[in-house]
């Protein structure tokens, strides 16, 4: 069974009684791209992306020590991206910029592109396995 592909590269699947589902990771990480002599599709192979809203929660107490109020500060978005490392590509440096397309926004009818700063980069090697690169990137509301 083949699944239709959106213009962003995401595959969409649907089943009876269930709304449209996102399928796969194609098209999520749109930069960095290798040089023009690279014969591949131009991007890392993305294994997984974890996205979360970066928030600070501050509580205040009343005279008896019970929590009486709460302030939630939304700092922006934080992404943890796991990709197959590729020696033909120069990995993004800490402080560099990458572009991520938010796949979940496709369900709402639009796509959101985030230009994020890389705040951490690391590698993971396993015996008889593909080398993996883990990137942590942020799109902060008031800085970026």
Mean pLDDT: 78
In the CATH hierarchy, the architecture is Beta Barrel
Distance between the termini: 42 Å
Q: How would a crystallographer describe the biggest sheet?
A: 6 strands, antiparallel
Unreliable stretches covering 5 or more consecutive residues: 1-7
Kindly describe this structure.
The chain is mainly beta and 144 residues long. It has one domain: Elongation Factor Tu (Ef-tu), domain 3, CATH 2.40.30. It contains no helices and eight strands. It has strands at residues 11-15, 18-23, 29-31, 45-61, 67-84, 97-102, 112-124, 132-140. The strands form two sheets. A six-stranded antiparallel sheet has the order 3-6-7-8-5-4, with no helix packed on it. The chain has a two-stranded antiparallel sheet with strand order 1-2. It starts with 10 loop residues before the first strand and ends with a strand. Mean pLDDT is 78; it is low at 1-7.
Short description:
This protein has 144 residues and is mostly beta strands.
